[in-house]
Amino acid sequence: MATVTVPAPRSPRSTRTRRTTRTNVEMLGWMFMRLSGVLLLVLIFAHLFVNLMVGDGIKAIDFAFVAGKWASPFWQVWDLLMLWLAMIHGTNGVRTIINDYAERDGTRLVLKTLLYLAFVVTVVLGTLVIFTFETCPAGAPTELLPSFCTE
């Protein structure tokens, strides 16, 4: 009687080549997801608390509110950290899903390329918006501007 060996459930597919490295990239990605998830919870809930609970609540959120927040380097860095962490966290999660479910190498390459392109575009544009936001634009109606803007 012939003995049949069944590969372990988590063994790599035969079509993929598995490289051994000194650092375990997947374990580092797993650790990053846990740590960034906890930090994102703190950043997001503090962001929501400040924007929705402090002051007049949701009625107060307008251009002047955002301009007043982004006039402070603290809030610029806070929102930048939130953007970057959320994008890296989400991109790493989608990368993992692509690796798990994309059967062919070509499909995996195309999907990851599109994912990384979307990541770069979003992070670059978001960073530019945060740091180039004009808090007191010339010619804007006075009632829409924050109180510290003078004509």
TrEMBL record:
It is found in: Membrane. This is Succinate dehydrogenase hydrophobic membrane anchor subunit. The lineage of its organism: Bacteria, Bacillati, Actinomycetota, Actinomycetes, Micrococcales. Membrane-anchoring subunit of succinate dehydrogenase (SDH). Pathway: Carbohydrate metabolism; tricarboxylic acid cycle. Keywords: Electron transport, Heme, Iron, Membrane, Metal-binding, Transmembrane, Transmembrane helix, Transport, Tricarboxylic acid cycle. InterPro entries: SQR/QFR_C/D, Succ_DH_anchor, SuccDH_FuR_B_TM-su. GO terms for cellular component: membrane. Its main location: membrane. It comes from Cellulomonas carbonis T26. One of its GO terms (biological process) is tricarboxylic acid cycle. The keyword Protease does not apply. Its cofactor is heme. CDD domains: SQR_TypeA_SdhD_like. One of its GO terms (molecular function) is heme binding. The chain crosses the membrane at residues 28-50, 70-88, 109-133. It is a multi-pass membrane protein.
